[in-house]
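Quick start: what a row looks like.
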Amino acid sequence: MPVGIKQKLIKRVFSKYAQTQAQLHPLTYLFWECTLKCNLNCLHCGSDCKKESSIKDMPVEDFIKVLKEISAKYEPGKVMIVLTGGEPMVRKDLEECGRKISKLGFPWGMVTNGMMLTQERISSLIASGLRSITLSVDGLEENHNWLRGSNKSFAAVKNALKVISLQKDLVHDVVTCVNKRNLSELSHIKQLLVDSGIKAWRLFTIAPIGRATEYPDLHLNGKEIRQLFEYIEESRKSNEIETSFSCEAYAGEYDHKIRNGLFFCRAGVNIGSVLADGSVSACPNNSQEFIQGNIYKESFLEIWENKFENMRNRSWMKTGICGTCKDFKYCNGGAMHLREDDQSEILRCLCREMGKA
C-alpha cells in the first residue's frame, strides 16, 4: 500500500477512535492545581503565578473528597493524578497530599521547575507514592534563565536532571518550550539530557496566552515551526532519547512523524482538572470561559458526566479558517487552549503558519 494512502487510512481510523472517546468520555487523567504560588516568574506562564497568590492553596481534604467520588465510578489505578500549579513543591504538605492520594489507590505525578528538587526530597516524595515527574528545561544556561526569570534556575535544573534520572522506578520526562532564542541550541539541550540519563523529551511551542503575549521572542514563525518539526523527525530516528512533539496542536504533514500517536486534544474527553479555587475544567491552560462548575457548589462526578459538551462536540469550531480546512476531520478544530471561548476562532494554527513560510 502506498505510504500516502496508508497514512490517510490511519488518520480515518484514528478519527473514528477520537469520536468514540468523546462519546464515552472516560476520565483517565486528572490535573490538580494544588497551588498558584511559585518560586519563579516565567515569561511564558499561562497561569500568571506569583510567589504569593490571592487564592489560597486548596486543603488536601477537599481534593480527596473529589477522588472518593471518582473512585465510586472509576478504578483508581486507571486514573492518573497530576499535581500542577504554580509550583507544587512550594506546598509544605506535598508529601501528605501524596500519601492520601496513594492511599485511595490513585497513581500520582507532578510537573516541576526543579528549583527545590534534591535527592533527599525526591526520596521523600517517592515514599509518599510519587510515580512520575515532568521537569522543564528550556535551553542552555543563558536562555533557560531568561525564560525562567532567575539566574539560579539552570544550576538547579541541572542538579534535578541527575536526581530524577537515578530513580529507577520513577517515570520521567523533560519538556522544553521552544522559542526563537533556543531553537538553534536544541541539539545541545538534547546532549545535556542524554548525558544526564534522561529517557524522554517532549518539545512544545508557546500559545499567545497569559504572559506569553508580551514577549515576541517566544513565538516561532512558520519557517521556524517547520525547522522544529524537522528536527524532531530527525531526532526520533536515534535511540538516544525518545523525542516527540507535545499534544498542543495538529501538525499537518508532520503529525505522524513527530509523535507516537496522532493529534487528539483530550481536554474534557479524557482529561479533567480541579483548579486552585475549586473550579472544574479540562487542561489547566484552558481559558476560564471553559470552566464547567465548582466542587464547592456541586459534585465533580456530576460535572464530569453531564457537562463538557462544548469539548466533546466540537462542531462549533468549524468556523473561520477552520471552516474550509480539508484537515478539520483530523484536527477537529485544534487544541482547547487555543480558543478563548466557544464563539472564538483559533488563536493560532501551526499548519496555516507553515503554509505562509
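That is the whole record. The first helix runs from residue 3 to 24. The mean pLDDT is 93.
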